[in-house]
Amino acid sequence: MQKVNCLTVQTVLLVLLWSIQIWAQTEPNRNLRLHPLESRIFGNNRMIRVLLPSGYDNVANRRRRYPVLYLNDGQNLFDVATSLFNPMEWRVDETVGDLMEKKEIRDLIVVGIDNAGRSGRANEYLPYPDKYLTPPLSNPQGGKYPDFLTNEVMPFINTQYRTEKGMDSTGIGGSSYGALISLYTVIVKPGIFGRVLLESPSFYVSDAEILDQAAKARKLPERIYIGVGTNEGGQPNCIPGDLNKEAVQDVLRFQKILQARKYDERRLKVVVEQCALHNENAWARRFPNAVRFLFGDYSPN
Fold first, then answer.
1. CA-CA distance, 260 to 163, in Å (whole number)?
2. CA 174 from centre of chain
3. Is 2 a residue whose pLDDT tops 60?
4. DSSP 8-state code for residue 163
5. How far apart are CA 173 and CA 98, in angstroms?
């Protein structure tokens, strides 16, 4: 009888411990705010995910303003439970929180902009057709995205939160198609975004038309970070040091374009990661160095 009681107690304790762990994992991030946003430009709705720095609501900080980093594919940034394509995430909240606590980056607001879902993502992120897309889109609407961002998302954020204005305090970024539309946005909306983060960018679309546009752009951001893996296609046998893949070659071509525009190591950081894949785990792994480069000029004011 005592043995049964002992086992029962142990079982209860194990269940209780398991429940506490699950609760801890699912407890909402109190610095992450969710806002539904209706877009007149695209005629749909999506969630805007706003990560605030610790202490944002403190009385002592009530007049303080913060730089902002806008990131595409908001579903994939903060939680595997909301990630759209696979159970991976960028770990943006953990990384940014840790870097701000260590004073390695400026205190900033991160805005995750949800995409339009599996069926609508490409339509909004492609400024020109991608002949390799299945099913094909003959007339994607990515040309509207810069207006959606600057006329709908940013005014909403600037109204709701204490944001710091100006190029030096405003960044944009994304991965894959999300990186493509980020670069397109800074080209067609010059003077708004001073920092851009491009992970595994889909520069190949429409015969790398985006790179031709970049070469002719009147103004580009002051700081640009680009990350790419040498195994974006997920080949089973990756050869370290092989830079011949199209994704890498496109990034290196863009690097040359920027260097011709007098970008040096203070303004441009290019990371080519050996055998890295095209997924959120790779982008999460490179994200700390990316955000350090873009917002590492820490200032307590």
1. 33
2. 4
3. no
4. B
5. 20
Amino acid symbol at 129: P
Amino acid at 80: V
Q: Which residues contact 201 (CB under 8 A, 6 or more apart)?
A: 175, 176, 179, 180, 183, 226, 228, 247, 250, 251, 254
Angular region, 70: left φ>0, alpha ψ -120 to 50, beta rest: beta
How many CA atoms are closer than 13 Å to the CA of 246, on its beta-carbon side? 8
Report the distance separating Cα 53 and Cα 71, nearest Å: 16
For 199-225, the pLDDT digits (tens) are 999 999 999 999 999 999 999 999 999
Token pair 């974006």: residue: 232
The single-letter code of the amino acid at 134 is T
Amino acid (one-letter) located at 141: Q
Residue 226: strand pairing partners: 198, 270
Q: How confident is the model at residue 297 (pLDDT cuts 50, 70, 90)?
A: confident
Q: Is 101 helix (H, G, I), strand (E, B) or coil?
A: helix
Alpha-carbon distance of 195 to 1, in angstroms, equals 68
φ and ψ at residue 238, rounded to 5 degrees: -95, 130
Strands 223-229 and 32-39, how do they pair?
unpaired
Can you give the pTM of this predicted structure? 0.90
